[in-house]
Structures are given as structure tokens and as C-alpha cells.
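Working notes for the structural subgroup meeting. M.R. asked for a predicted model of this chain before we commit to crystallization trials. I am recording the input and output together here so anyone reviewing the notebook later can reproduce the run.

Input as submitted:
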Amino acid sequence: DDTIQISIAGNNLFAINSSIFQSNGTSGPGLLTETATSTNPTLIPATNDYNTGIGWAGADTGSLIAGGTNVLNFRGDGNVGIGTTTPAGKLEVLTQSSTFGEIREVARFRSYRTGFGDATTSGGYLNFGGGNNGSGPTDQELARLQWGAPNTPANYNYLGFHVYNGSALEEIISIKSNGNVGIGTTSPDRTLHVNGVGHFGS
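Returned structure, recorded in C-alpha cell form:
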């Protein structure tokens, strides 16, 4: 037998052989002795699932792998990539297709309520922030993309664009599911409803 057993109090806790250092049992963690890649993990949470765990995509780049598929990569510079091992920003998401002209889903954001019977709006939003107050960086919400699905269908689903006006986020553009678009109003009653002075032309 080419296996070394590590026992404590009469219980075999770990086993070491030429291919793996693992906890005893069929579903314990293990450390493989083979070379790690971006699709081949060497640190695995379950020894009955050899192709799921943590791998290595190159210098200072770790990889999360599931079923032999590269899912996420994290780098020493703090950048994280999904679909790419060389993210250029704090988060880069890449999807690729060999089909010319194909439009593919890159990301999905969902927010919904689980109860029924109330008259509130369910939805979600993405905030964009940053800024500098002249003496140092500040954490200020500067813009927001918000969506919602009102309980009452007559109020229509909507997509809203908010911008910081110096004191608070203000919804500047509102797009309703009935096709109406509002600028300066959150309740447009025409295809284009502008609350304020408009300018058309060059």
C-alpha cells in the first residue's frame, strides 16, 4: 500500500499518496499533486468531485473552477474576471460567441418580492458612485439605474435614470413599459413627455 495514513486518537483523518493529500471519507477536501491550470483545480473541497475547486491561471492569478469550467479569476492587483483570465478592471465580464451577429446575455440582475396582495412596487437598482471634494475622495452616489414592477399593471413597469443634483439622486429620465418616455417627469402621458424647456435642432 503506497498510502500514508494520519491518525489521531485511533481515527484515520488524512491519507497521503502519490496523487493526493486528502481527508478520509468520500466527500472531504483534498490537495492534488498535479499541475493546476485555469480549468484544472488542485485544491478541491470534495474528493469525489476532482474537477471543482481552486486552480491557477498564471502569475498572481487564481481561478475558481466548477465541473472543469473556468468560472471566475482573481488577480493580485485586485481585479476579478468572469469569462476572462486577464481582467482589465475591478470587475470584467466577458462572453464570447463564434456566431456572427449573435446577441448574447452578459449579465442578469433580478429583484422580486415573494409575497402577494400589497400595492407596493418591487424592483431593484444599480448605484454608481465616487467623486472628490477637493480635499480627498468621497463616497457619493452619483447616478442610479433603477427598475420596477408595480403591483398595479396600469402603472406600468419602468426603467429610470437618476443623477445626483447636488443634494440627492433625482430621476431624470423615466421609461414606461407602455412606450412612454419622460424627461423631468416620472409619469409621462405621451410617447415623449418633457417637463421643462426642450430644444430640437442643430
